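User: Please fill in residues for this 175-position structure.
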């Protein structure tokens, strides 16, 4: 049996996403993929699984070596979600008391991850805003429809605030 759940979690809160996937697994719903704000789960036995999400960029080296490193550490690749020049990688591992339950266990590697994600999403947000800003002004000049002008301005503001929130939250996570 398959279950689809619509859920919006931004990149700055991927820890929240990991916790959500773990809770679903405890309820017998095991994550299989993500598409268009929808999480797909398969029904199964309740399981105490750890999920970890990582972003692997194409400039960081060979993907096969990267995946082998995780496999050697006991992690199973569940799903990859391509975006920009890399992909989000969803890993899982059976929870045990004697093994590390996190991919990033030291502060330096966490800082590197948060910095990488902040740079990626901050740059993308800036590009989106720089493209959307002229559309806002052009719609104001070319139309007398005040609803359209306000709608475009509202969308621009929403996008700008969303990406600003993500950058600020990721900055707070960097000690």
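Assistant: Residues filled in for all 175 positions:
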């Amino acid at each position: 049996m398959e279950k689809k759940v619509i859920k919006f979690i931004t990149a700055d809160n991927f820890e929240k996403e990991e916790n959500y996937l773990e809770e679903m697994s405890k309820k017998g719903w095991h994550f299989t993929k993500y598409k268009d704000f929808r999480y797909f789960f398969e029904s199964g036995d309740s399981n105490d699984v750890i999920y970890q999400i990582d972003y692997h960029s194409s400039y960081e080296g060979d993907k096969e070596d990267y995946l082998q490193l995780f496999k050697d550490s006991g992690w199973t690749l569940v799903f990859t979600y391509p975006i920009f020049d890399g992909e989000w990688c969803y890993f899982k591992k059976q929870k045990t008391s004697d093994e590390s339950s996190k991919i990033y266990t030291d502060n330096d590697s966490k800082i590197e991850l948060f910095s990488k994600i902040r740079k990626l999403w901050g740059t993308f947000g800036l590009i989106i805003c720089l493209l959307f800003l002229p559309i806002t002004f052009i719609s104001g000049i070319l139309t007398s429809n005040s609803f359209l002008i306000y709608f475009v301005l509202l969308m621009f503001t929403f996008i700008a605030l969303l990406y600003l929130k993500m950058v600020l939250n990721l900055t707070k996570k960097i000690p």
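For context: The beta strands are 2-6, 29-35, 38-43, 49-57, 76-83, 86-94.
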